[in-house]
Amino acid sequence: MYYHIYKSEIGKIYLVSKGHALCGCYLENQKNFPKEILNYQKDDSLKIFIEATNWLERYFKGENVENNEISLEVNGTDFRRNVWNIIKGIPYANTVTYKQIADTIIKNNKLKSMSYQAVGSAVGYNPLLIFIPCHRVIRSDGDIKGYSAGNEIKKFLLNLECDNNKILL
């Protein structure tokens, strides 16, 4: 496993890869930060890290970058991967609610119900912050609480994407 540190406006972002695809993107002080990253080999020259760094630089300049530009590899339960795939489909500068994600899963899997908290937990364990844009998931009442990297970071990312102050949290 390899890591690279990208210094951003929101702090140090740790990019993680097995060598070809990006499998982790973590803010230094976020909840669920995998401490084992520091045991990985630091490598600033991996092609995926160069691509991810360029993507992040464009993102932080306010560009609408596509999630599919970077090769991603996610590990997690089927349920979590299902939630993360739904999140990857949230358009730039838009938000969806935990309820909307749960309703999509209910419909797609012909279920009777689903816990919004289960969806929230899966969102919280997203291993690829920003690349899988979990900051675009909000509560039904519009509240942004509960972001694993902190609510101020979530507010920053949402406002960055909405340069015409569409969100203004």
From TrEMBL:
InterPro entries per the UniProt record, alphabetical: MethylDNA_cys_MeTrfase_AS (IPR001497), MethylDNA_cys_MeTrfase_DNA-bd (IPR014048), MethylDNA_cys_MeTrfase_DNAb (IPR036217), MethylG_MeTrfase_N (IPR008332), MGMT_N_sf (IPR036631), WH-like_DNA-bd_sf (IPR036388)
Recorded GO MF terms: methylated-DNA-[protein]-cysteine S-methyltransferase activity
CDD domains (alphabetical): ATase (cd06445)
Top EC category: transferase
Gene Ontology BP annotations: DNA repair; methylation
Keyword Plastid: no
Domain Methylated-DNA-[protein]-cysteine S-methyltransferase DNA binding, chain residue ranges per copy: 78-161
Residues covered by the Methylguanine DNA methyltransferase ribonuclease-like domain: 1-72
Catalytic activity reported: a 6-O-methyl-2'-deoxyguanosine in DNA + L-cysteinyl-[protein] = S-methyl-L-cysteinyl-[protein] + a 2'-deoxyguanosine in DNA; a 4-O-methyl-thymidine in DNA + L-cysteinyl-[protein] = a thymidine in DNA + S-methyl-L-cysteinyl-[protein]
EC number in record: 2.1.1.63
Protein name: Methylated-DNA--[protein]-cysteine S-methyltransferase
Source organism: Gemella sanguinis
